[in-house]
Amino acid sequence: MKYEPIEALLKSASQYFEVFFIQENVKSPIRLVDTRIGLIGFLILVLLSINTFSPNKLFFVFFNLFLLIIISKVPLNSYTRRVGLMPLFIFTIMLPQVFLSSLEYALLFTFRVCLAISFLTIFTLITPFREILVTLRFYKIPEILILTFSFTYSYTYLIFNELYRLLVARESRRFNNKSYRKIWNEGGELLGMFFIKVYERGENIHLVRISRGYNNNMYSFKSSKFNLIPNFIFISFVAFVTIGWMII
Known about the structure:
The chain contains 11 helices and no strands. With 248 residues, the protein is mostly helical.
């Protein structure tokens, strides 16, 4: 049918991003690393990934990313579910650069962004989202940015979940093929319904939060036991990658 490719793409994308934002809290040896140190360390690795177009440096970072995945015991299926389609998505965006610059530039840009996303994915897989917010408060990040980050994370999952439900409901209620004009009209109705439902669900969730005692000061910092050896190993790993990146 005419509409199947577009709707199939939307369903796949909504399902993919719905999974991407699910918090899994994988049990990992890196959980022994203080979250404050882990956040800075992973941000350094992200910066090393995006601050070069040198293939040698990028492959050096990629090797250490692979090593980090093994050490952190992150399940490959959890990692690939989140990052697997990212190269295709990013390269599609970079397709105009193949003609404006070169194929090499588009591939290297895709590679470096995927590396950065991979490090962030590992960090979010092994670190509870609440701890990330607590750590941001420790570093005196403005409160409004932390709240925006919290709401964005919560409602991004909601948006893709609602989109997937609408597409499935529409598919189950359709019996015959239609003209392109009818498809476009129904697509506009679906888009309007989508925004209304997302707004209503977001409002209901926020009211439920307030009724259960939500307030802006719920993420206060509490110091935890500091494990010297895991933190030293992680700092040494980040330092090794940084020095190696500078030498290559």
